[in-house]
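Sample entry was shown:
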Amino acid sequence: MRLFPRSLFGRNVLLIVVLIVLGQLLGALMVRQLIVKPRLAQLSVAVTRNVSSIRAGLAAMPPAQREAFVARFNHRAMQGVTHEVDGTDRGQRLLLSRLERRFVREASRGIAAEGEGAEIIWRREAGGSLAVRLRLDGADHWVTLPGVLPAREFTGAWVVASLASAMLALLGALLIHHYLNRPLRRVVASAHTLAGGNSPQPLPEDGPTEIADLSRSFNQMVRALAQADDERTLMLAGVSHDLRTPLTKLRLGIEILRDKADAELMASMTRGVEEMDAIIGQFLDFARSTDSEERVPVDLDALAAEVVAASADHGRPVTLQAGGLAPVMLRQRAMRRALTNLVENAWRHGSPPVTIATGERGESVWIEVTDRGAGIAAAEAEALKQPFRRAESTRTGPPGAGLGLAIVDRIVRAHGGTLDLLPAAGGGLRARVTLPRP
């Protein structure tokens, strides 16, 4: 369990509370050093003088009058000091408090310095007052010193002050959370939107200077990424479109020369042209945006059956395991293109049998393409979703642009889903597309 909170709100609360507690401790220390200790020293000096005066007065009296004088003095001193008449204060506050112990030590040193010579003894009187023993001619006289240190009963003021400080700390943290965390949450939400393949709305560039600078920088980054993506898309689309014309001329030339040249050579040239045409098609698919296509209810089982039939027409049989799903709101052409790329990737880089399966789990549906090839290393799974990336095991295999999985990942993220490349049971690769059900 982490004692230090992870959230900014929790850290703000902890910081403010710690600062308030430290401030209270520092204030208490200053009161003790600058007020309590000087006043205690003054009080001990005054008590020392009073006790010395009383002792001198008692010494000047006849011994027979001393006891009556001390009784009248104590009676007069205790006037105004109230205590419970039912005896509930009996035995209460017998021990000296820390402040009283300090006072007793200071006063005892002062009285001893006056040359009294006898041991200084104190005791607790009724009502909480302190009394000091004066020994004259072998007789003990206990002189009460009322109000020397007022009784400090616990009234709960410290608890109230602490609770008020805690509420102020919580209020301060809430204000910080309102003015700081809310803009940060907007930035985080926009970053998640951007990571999902969508363009976030521009962030408001107001508020504190630091937050405004952060929002402005984020907006500039989003615009720069969008501009770079547009330029790359335009370049890929233009190059692919321009290559189609000479590629068509090559195909036409091959058809004209087919009967006049070596058949094996013509077949090799035809395969090369088809491979170039497939690569150019991947470029166009990657450059093509899916934003303009509206979402419609799509039966994933029926869509998978169409892809299976199209693959069978090209001599690549695929097994379908339909899960009986309800229609899902999708961009149909884009999702068909994604499934077609997964099937072609399985046949190109994997081994038969190739299977398409559909199913659902909780609030999401999934469709996956499985082959029995060599599979890929787990460390390469995320990297292969990037454009123009190919697995180490496929670099010497069939040629390709390395855009198949990148196209699928872009389409799936545009639908709010995820593409996972997982090892298949018994060997091979399992490419699973998980889509949220709106």
About this structure: Residues 8-60 form the longest helix (53 residues). The chain has nine helices and ten strands. Strands lie at 122-124, 130-136, 139-145, 296-298, 318-321, 328-330, 354-361, 364-370, 418-423, 429-436.
